[in-house]
């Protein structure tokens, strides 16, 4: 369930474009007006606003936002503007190019998306950047982590709820034999099963593994693997079992301790607000006995705080 709140009446993309232009005009930008409009429009509405703004003022709304806003607020608003698949492609391009390669962000986006979402992202990535996602992943990754990501991008998996109990039991057994039963780890078996099975199947494998071996598959992955390869496997597994719980964990990690990882905070809030943020909020509260809104409020300030809180919703 999304947490995005829309006005109770139909909005006009043309009027929104006019109101945004007014907010940018003159000395200083009316940031509150910008937030009130953009933080309460869905993906389709935001696309129409951008079209209207371009046709009326012969200027890209993104370019105007870059010149009017700054810091974390600018980063968050620019990431919020596109549709989800384009946004994911943008995050991946940024994570896999330039001076600051962010393989954690790239791994999160790839390993938490459904097969059909990944196919769309690949098409947009190629159309937008004239490069293949697989090539950029290959260029910046290595070893088992690289094998895992390339296999996850390349394999078309079943997305339905049905599972084959015999195959589930076999996979659980194979994972045990590939990891905890032996000295060393057969990483290829982990890659083969984690990237070739549906989410429903993998969740069932996890339950079967715990039932048979009295130890969670998550703990097995942690003890048998490390680094970015471990992160990829855990992301696939946790998103198969409970994506909201996974993202609640990522958000908590981004805000705990000294300082906040604002890039991660922005990425998760913006990418999940139109998806499952209501469930993420529930999981966050269940685990930390504190609302996600309270946590964001204490870690952010100013218009940046207002924007994120608008996306997450107060309840």
Write the layout of secondary structure elements.
Elements: H1 13-24, H2 31-38, H3 43-57, H4 61-68, H5 71-80, H6 84-95, H7 103-112, H8 115-129, H9 133-140, H10 143-154, H11 165-178, H12 187-196, H13 199-213, H14 217-224, H15 227-241, H16 243-255, H17 262-272, H18 277-288, H19 292-299, H20 302-312
Helix pairs in contact: 1-2, 1-3, 2-20, 5-17, 5-20, 6-7, 6-8, 7-15, 9-10, 10-12, 10-15, 11-12, 11-13, 13-15, 14-15, 15-16, 16-17, 16-18, 19-20
Pfam family, one: Annexin
InterPro entries: Annexin, Annexin_repeat, Annexin_repeat_CS, Annexin_sf
GO cellular component, one term: plasma membrane
| Beta-strand content | under 5%
Number-wise, the strands total 0
Largest sheet: none
Order of helices and strands: HHHHHHHHHHHHHHHHHHHH
Number of contiguous helices: 20
Low-pLDDT stretches are none
Assign a percent range to the helix content.
Answer: over 70%
Give me the secondary-structure category. Answer: mainly alpha
Separation of termini? 13 Å
Gross morphology is elongated
Q: Would you tell me the overall average pLDDT?
A: 95
Rounded Rg: 21 Å
